[in-house]
């Protein structure tokens, strides 16, 4: 299993558009084969940094997932929405592997 971290630089005056974009992916990504952890928008600190995070089985599975996403009507519509509204200024992806698992149980006070 690998985790894809997408770092976005967004227009701070178009956070609502990014939120709509993220909610759309919340429907599309799981339907097309990736385990969505979530999209995260600015709250405190930077007003321009946002993230999307999901798990996928392998880079080969990622390629199949990307093809499926591109063929999905809502996926295509969401890509077009981001191009039209121009709220994403920059987007970078990195694939990481969780090397700390298995984790201990959370200890509460």
Automatic annotation (TrEMBL):
Domain NIPSNAP: 5-100
Pfam family membership, one: NIPSNAP
Domain of life: Bacteria
The protein, known as: NIPSNAP domain-containing protein
Species the sequence originates in: Rhizobium esperanzae
